[in-house]
Specification:
The protein is mostly helical. The chain has ten helices and no strands.
Length: about 240
């Protein structure tokens, strides 16, 4: 088996993620370091995951909050493929202030469609980690967030938060609360969903623009409750 320079990979990705396009906002693919590219194994998706993904997301897809890397275990393959495609195409990770998104874009540029599909199936087969509330304070009241979810989120993300492939809407109940809150803030700030061809992201920009920081905190707490079986449907207008 080929030896993987495990500690070398994060440093290269961080350097690549910091490369700038001189502030032009262009989303053209950035150069990929050939040393990093050598960590992809076309015939062994498990080894590709171990070398490329596990560095941040963990060997079991459990994530690492210190690296702002979400748990991804058990997420559907179509969703993983979609996100990697969005990173490759510059719909994600193109904003100059989005350092972690730019790092992920470098990873996505390593993988062709076949490698992406194989790694996505590897991730889908992992045991899912349900969303839980990890805030330092007790979870805030959920009444208002439940109503927001029922009337602004449920039509795309479904009543149980499992997402919908047709709408390209994310499964929410297998992602960490802190990550979900962070992504809402990225949409609100224009770091995501503002690329001209990202029509689905534009919908999220519109929704998140109406949310305050308190709303986002309550939504993150509610999504943990949703993962535990809460039903928002009675709150529909």
């Amino acid at each position: 088996m080929r030896t993987v320079p495990f500690l070398l990979f994060p440093a290269l990705i961080i350097l690549a993620g910091c490369s700038d396009d001189q502030g032009t906002g262009e989303s053209a693919p950035e150069p990929v370091d050939p040393l990093v590219a050598g960590l992809v194994f076309p015939d062994d998706p498990g080894q590709t995951y171990a070398a490329v993904c596990a560095v941040c997301h963990g060997p079991k897809g459990e994530g690492n909050r210190q690296l702002l890397a979400p748990s991804i275990a058990g997420l559907p393959a179509w969703f993983i493929e979609l996100q990697l495609s969005q990173f490759r195409e510059g719909h994600r990770g193109a904003h100059p202030d989005d350092l972690h998104g730019r790092q992920m874009r470098q990873v996505a540029l390593l993988l062709d469609e076949a490698a992406t599909h194989a790694v996505a199936l590897q991730i889908e087969a992992m045991e899912k980690i349900p969303t839980v509330w990890t805030g330092e304070k007790p979870a805030p009241p959920l009444v208002r967030a439940r109503r927001i979810y029922a009337n602004q989120c449920m039509s795309c993300h479904r009543f149980n938060g499992t997402g919908e492939r047709v709408f390209r809407s994310a499964p929410l109940i297998g992602l960490p609360d802190w990550y979900l809150a962070g992504q809402l803030k990225k949409y609100r700030a224009g770091w995501r969903g503002t690329q001209p061809a990202d029509h689905y992201g534009a919908k999220m920009v519109a929704v998140s623009s109406r949310l305050s920081d308190q709303d986002i905190e309550e939504m993150a707490a509610y999504l943990a409750a949703l993962a535990a079986g809460d039903d928002p449907r009675p709150e529909m207008d």
